[in-house]
Amino acid sequence: MLEISNLSKTYQRGNKEALKNISLKIEEGEFTALLGQNGAGKSTLINILAGNVKKTQGIVKIGQYSIDKNELETKKIIGIVPQDTGYDFVFTVDEALKNQSGYFGIKNNDDYIDELLEALYLKDKRNARLRDLSGGMRRRFLIAKALVHQPKILILDEPTAGVDIEMRHTLYEFLIKLHQSGTTIILTTHYLEEAEILCNRIVIIDDGKIVADEPKEQLMDSFSDEVRIELHFDHELNLADLEFLKGYDPQIEEKTSLKLKVQKKDLSKVFRMITDKKLEFTNIFVEKPKLEEIYLKLISH
Amino acid sequence: MKKRIIFYNRTGFTTLLNREIHRFMKVPVQTVLAPLISNMLYLAIFGGMLQTRQVGIDGVNYLHFLVPGLASMGAIFAAFQNPAFSIISQKFQNTIQDLNSYPISNAEKILAFVFGGVFRGVLVGLLTYAATIFFVGYEIEYPVFFVLSLTATSFVFASLGLICGLIFDNFEKMNFVLAIVITPLAYLGGVFFEISKLPGLLAAIKYINPIYPLVNVARFAFIGVYEGNIQVQIIITVVLILGSFLSASYIFKKGIGIKTV
Ligand SMILES: Nc1ncnc2c1ncn2[C@@H]1O[C@H](COP(=O)(O)OP(=O)(O)O)[C@@H](O)[C@H]1O
Ligand SMILES: [Mg+2]
């Protein structure tokens, strides 16, 4: 669906090497999160796909088309919600979406526009001017705009940055439905729990290079050698009595619960050590690492 | 498979063209009425003042001489401003990159912007003519040819306007080009008087001034009288059309003003 081979980008301004020999293959139906710090190169990658930035080197294929040989064909396959973009303020939502359809060669698109506006809770804003929409509405409008030609791939560059929680959840619902109906989605975001909820594949870019690219479950598993366990006791604890657990980063919370970081292979050993000391716990919780921790590990320099 | 360039996406092309026309038709006072009024002022002042002096072509009523010049000049400014203004506003609105996302060929995009300018240029040119009917009568020697000449002139300057819009990132630079390059070329291009009446070096500017043949061809169509070699001027007009379109194509292909390198 999307094939990127040995892609590099050095911006002329500042001679900045933003992408360093990146290869990435996205299959039809995937929901991929593209993660990375500010300045990692996410938008550069997306802007190359969009035709806004000229690549320095490499091959990019969207569908079966190369962006060098069949650029125009690639436009029909992707829809892009850019990170920072403006609005043609004088138009109404309806006019802008009709124009957008026209640019894609679609003459009568009213039914689909209706559907999109309904799904994005913009129906009553149909005749509002873009300049009169709130920030959240404009974001949703941009998504509708990127979708009028029913692209096979939707790429969203930080669509939820600065959007309130409720709006974010509305968007999640929408994206999940869109994905279920067969659209391949690529999403960059700063909210890691967003990637965790929505995506089935995680790609992490750091300093212009891909440092992780795996199905989400696999990525999580490969980092779950270490688990966090939380033990609850029916009496107060004292750190001094827990000297023997020093290697497992013991922490006492609310006086009666104990948190530990333990390698999976050491789990039974640790439990044995605790019971040997005649400490009786009343409850136990095991916590897998969060994507956030994995992410921080991967990008730490 | 042969690549279709001109008719790759006709609906896309018309949508883009409609937007370009819609944009200036929404503010007709600034875009159409204002140039018309200034042309009327020129006609009143220069026409009234210079009628008795021999500045036009010998034996031709000076007002008749002036009308095609003013119509051409109006077309030049209007055609130039339309795409230039459109592109620069899109840069300001930060929507210019939308152009990269459409499946519309470069040739179609260029022609949409240029035809938008042509439409406005020809409209201003013809309205200038219409407004002078009261003073000079409605007769045109070769009406179709006159419209064609306004179209040609508008095409050349709409292409230049598009190029300037892509190259420049603010309105001040665009206005600078209008004031420092195009206005003087128009004044020295035979809009108001016969160039050969100018002294020495100033008269020689006509050889490098693209406006000179354009105005002359329009005047020939209007009154049937001309200065210099009209065949050569028609050929130059065609060359200017092709040259300006190819230059715009080059700028577009390079992605200047719309793509980041
Ligand atoms: N137009 C540009 N000209 C020069 N450098 C740029 C340009 N755009 C981005 N960069 C640089 O390229 C790097 C990657 O930026 P970007 O792709 O925007 O990162 P991200 O989207 O991951 O935050 C950054 O160092 C940024 O400063
Ligand atoms: Mg970014």
From TrEMBL, chain A:
Fetch the InterPro entries from UniProt: AAA+_ATPase, ABC_transporter-like_ATP-bd, ABC_transporter-like_CS, ABC_transporter_ATP-binding, P-loop_NTPase
Tell me the ranges covered by the ABC transporter domain, including all copies.
Answer: 2-232
Q: Which GO terms describe its molecular function?
A: ATP binding; ATP hydrolysis activity
Q: Which domain of life is it from?
A: Bacteria
Going by the UniProt record, its keywords in alphabetical order are: ATP-binding, Nucleotide-binding, Transport
- Tell whether NADP is among the UniProt keywords: no
Q: Which SMART domains match?
A: AAA
* Family matches, as Pfam families: ABC_tran
The record, for Gene3D superfamilies, names: P-loop containing nucleotide triphosphate hydrolases
Question: What's the protein name?
Answer: ATP-binding cassette domain-containing protein
Species the sequence originates in: Acetobacterium paludosum
UniProtKB/TrEMBL annotation, chain B:
> Where exactly are the transmembrane stretches of this chain?
32-50, 62-80, 110-138, 144-168, 175-193, 230-252
Q: What is this protein called?
A: Transport permease protein
Q: Which organism is it from?
A: Acetobacterium paludosum
Pfam families linked: ABC2_membrane
Q: What is the top-level taxon of the source organism? A: Bacteria
Among the GO molecular function terms of this UniProt record, one is: ABC-type transporter activity
- Subcellular localization, per the record? Cell membrane; Membrane
Name the keywords, alphabetized. Answer: Cell membrane, Membrane, Transmembrane, Transmembrane helix, Transport
Q: How does it sit in the membrane?
A: Multi-pass membrane protein
* UniProt record similarity statement: Belongs to the ABC-2 integral membrane protein family.
Q: Mention any one GO cellular component term assigned to this protein in its UniProt record.
A: ATP-binding cassette (ABC) transporter complex
Origin organism lineage = Bacteria, Bacillati, Bacillota, Clostridia, Eubacteriales
Q: What positions does the domain ABC transmembrane type-2 occupy?
A: 26-255
